[in-house]
């Protein structure tokens, strides 16, 4: 017999699906080939072969796979005598979802003949990766809660309920994983002022909500409204909120902190108490005359800080008002015999340059500080 027939596989190709969870040594495939030649020409050994780039044989693999097929071979072992293919190392769907290479059958004739068929192995993904938030929001220093992910955003304190705050974006290396977002409640109850889209990770400002989580616009009330005139302005109790957001793929979870800073707005001017007019009776010769009734301003930050200034009135150059406390001083000795009454104008200004005025009337009280004097120096 002459070795004139190459081995022939029982199937023209193989396509298999193997989970990335399977252990090393897992049985993948049994190769089978036959050779009608007798003697050594009919004895077959099996091997695996990478797909060389540029091969133009009728059964060539696609070019985009051929460049990685050499690495694909490192995941598999083939027993040359039995044709049994097993896992040589653990598969990783994220690294390579498909492996393609040749299975080769070679006879042992003096001039060996061989044939080959393509093998395609699809790696089945397993949920072995936790979701991760957008890496651009990871801080170099670990936050106080042990979470490295941290979003920092600003929100206008006058923003209406339903205002978009930010979008939290997470990804998962596993295929077909559905991510769900939720706010983690804690003792601060900050999460009650916001609403988070479970599917899209969009965070909304929602200071008033119904039990089902929807914003309840018709029932908006501010603290001021409870005892005064109605208002749709939301009275915010804090300058900043700290939220903890969880994302889950139903098996693994990841967390991120969201710091929301309320951006102050100068919507209110300072206001002196009514009737914005005071009358003081002060003795002549006094220096610290008293303290004006202070103005109030509900704004936050510098917009709520008030300074006072003496801006009008005859003789105002003789007086000074302390800019922060409202204490009022005479800069020189007052003399009722010279001027018995002053009317002064005081202005209160906030950090946003809004202002209010009040008037102060000073009645100088007489003090027995003058000796009697004769109308003439001598009498005859």
Automatic annotation (TrEMBL):
UniProt superkingdom: Eukaryota
Keywords on record: Calcium, Membrane, Repeat, Transmembrane, Transmembrane helix
Localisation per UniProt entry: Membrane
Gene Ontology molecular functions: calcium ion binding
Domain Cadherin: 10-133, 147-272, 295-374
An example Gene Ontology CC term for this record: plasma membrane
Matches recorded under InterPro entries: Cadherin-like_dom, Cadherin-like_sf, Cadherin_CS
GO BP annotation list: homophilic cell adhesion via plasma membrane adhesion molecules
The name this protein goes by in its record: Cadherin domain protein
Protein's organism: Opisthorchis viverrini (Southeast Asian liver fluke)
